[in-house]
Amino acid sequence: MIKVERSEAPAKLTAEKVKELTEEYKKTEKNVWNQDYIKKALLDMSNNKCIFCECRLGEESKYIEVEHFHPKSKYPEEVVEWENLLPICKRCNGLKRDHDTKLEPIINPTLIDPRKHLTIKKFRFFSKDDLGKKTISVLCLNDSDRLFLPRVKIGDAISSILDSLGKWVDKIKFDHSVEDQNELISKMYNLLKSCQPNAEYSTICSYALFEDDNYYEIKNFMQQVKIWDEDLSRLETNCLNYSLIEYGHLKSTV
Ligand SMILES: [Zn+2]
């Protein structure tokens, strides 16, 4: 889960339209929010990801569902209020159901930075306070089959990429080839790109990257031979700005 900037409401969702759809919902309980222009705007806002678990929406039965952060059953006036709508996957929607977020708040990532309330260790989310605790429990953020096992797989994949980059470093130390150096830059660039906030499960990707000692060894080497460039620094900083890892933990190494 990462902080997401709330985008502008879609142009078609005018104040008049909101009023009309809200009235229709109150009379008929129809799915008035189920509009393509609303779904598209929500997907654009979240880089096509579920706002809570960060799975990619629109692939393999993971279709977007329009989430009412404050449940429509209890707060019908907000049924198409743009600020109350979030892009969510079927599984997260099924877990949150009619949970009353006004009586028992959970994190709304468009309003609250999850880093203030959550942290991650060994591929599990931990809470820093009651808001984090409630968010983890309502959304089952450490569910074994659905979320924990895929996280371990991502961790394995990143660790194995870093392993292969480490071997590349050994090769460069031996033969000093410029082509090999360029190849290393390109591979590190791609790795950091794959951990950016727009990536699926980006929270887990950046955690796996920054928890791995190999990352710092490779980075140190690249800095020593002056091939750690501004693009790499920019990508690293962007990852860090969204990472659930404590920044203090990294200060001595970044
Ligand atoms: Zn989800």
TrEMBL record:
Entry superkingdom: Bacteria
Keyword Hydrolase listed: yes
Pfam family, one: HNH
Record InterPro entries: HNH (IPR002711), HNH_nuc (IPR003615)
Keyword list, A-Z: Endonuclease, Hydrolase, Nuclease
GO molecular function list: endonuclease activity; nucleic acid binding; zinc ion binding
Domain (HNH nuclease) ranges: 37-94
CDD domains: HNHc
Protein name (database record): HNH endonuclease
Organism whose genome encodes this protein: Paenibacillus donghaensis
